[in-house]
Amino acid sequence: MMKYLLLLFAVATIHTNAQIPLTFNKRFVESENKWVALRGKTDSIYMFGFIYLDASAGLSVREEGTFKITSNNTYVPTKPSNAIYTARLQDNQIKVAWIPAEKLIELQVTDPPDWLKIYKTDTTSAAYLFRWGFTYNGGNEIEKALYYFDRVKKIDPHYPGLEFEYIYAYNASKQYGKAIAMIENVLKTQPNNGNLYKELVFAQANSNQLSKAEETYKQGIAHCGNDTKAEMSFNIAYTYYVQKNKDKFIYWADESKQWMVPKDPRINGLAQLKAVLDK
């Protein structure tokens, strides 16, 4: 019995040592000032780098190279000396793993890296704070985005692009009343801004102000490109679908399709919605 228990303990120990303590569940926007691992072309090799915010380029990663994990859970760097390069990140479905702090010594890096100092000399300016808000907005981290935009507003309430980012954040967080009020105010000075009409239609449609959304669409199409026209009319059509108003849905679906390119996936989506209403 004792031999059997010892054997189980030995197997469990080997299994524990062989485990890879990397969980690929973090988005880029969550990983600022973190050493991260990315899956490589093979299961045994991982890329790694440091994610930071560049005030001019946005969220970026400086890749240091690659590493492998041995059977005893040691991280062994395999990078060449000239492998370092920087790339701008677009928040998407790719997930990274945060590298455990105790493993950074094995990878021969410091936390934070010395080079980060040059990017931390200006962390309180409107430009730096706006870049962070913009980054969080793009990553759908709306509360964090609004926190930074509020700080920008205290420094410079007329900072270029600030109002539109507020509008985007309000719509993304379903604060449609705030979005509508701000858009209507901005349109007084920017009546030809097609993006404002797009956001206004979205807010009105999603707050069941469909008559107003239709009127906004008619006012705005002269200032919008085809894709924006398609998006505005699609949003109106979809809201009518939710309300099961088949006639209105068909009208606005046809309106939307005329602005779409032939292979636009939304065309098939509209057909599927119509099929549901036909049942």
Descriptive report:
The model is unreliable at 1-19 and 81-85 (pLDDT under 50). Strands 1, 2, 3, 4, 5 and 6 form a six-stranded antiparallel beta sheet that branches. The radius of gyration is 25 Å and the shape is globular. By secondary structure, the chain is α+β, with helices and mostly antiparallel strands. It folds into two domains: 17-119; 126-278, Tetratricopeptide repeat domain (Serine Threonine Protein Phosphatase 5, Tetratricopeptide repeat, Alpha Horseshoe). The relative contact order is 0.07. β1 and β2 (45-54) form a beta hairpin. It starts with a helix and ends with a helix. Helices cover 48% and strands 13% of the residues.
Quick synopsis:
This protein is of the alpha+beta class and 279 residues long. The protein has helices at residues 2-18, 126-138, 142-155, 162-172, 176-187, 194-206, 210-220, 226-242, 246-257, 265-278; strands at 34-39, 45-54, 58-69, 75-77, 85-88, 97-98.
Q: What is the CATH third-level topology name of the largest domain? A: Serine Threonine Protein Phosphatase 5, Tetratricopeptide repeat
Helix content: 40-55%
Number of strands: 6
Q: Give the strand content.
A: 5-15%
The CATH first-level class of the largest domain comes to: Mainly Alpha
- Looking at CATH, the homologous superfamily of the largest domain is Tetratricopeptide repeat domain
Low-pLDDT residue spans: 1-19, 81-85
Largest sheet: 6 strands, antiparallel
Give the C-alpha Rg: 25 Å
The arrangement of helices and strands along the chain is: HEEEEEEHHHHHHHHH
Number of domains: 2
Q: Ends: how far apart? A: 67 Å
- On the 0 to 100 scale, the average pLDDT is 86
General form = globular
Count of helical regions: 10
> From the 3D coordinates, which CATH architecture of the largest domain would you assign?
Alpha Horseshoe
Structural class: alpha+beta
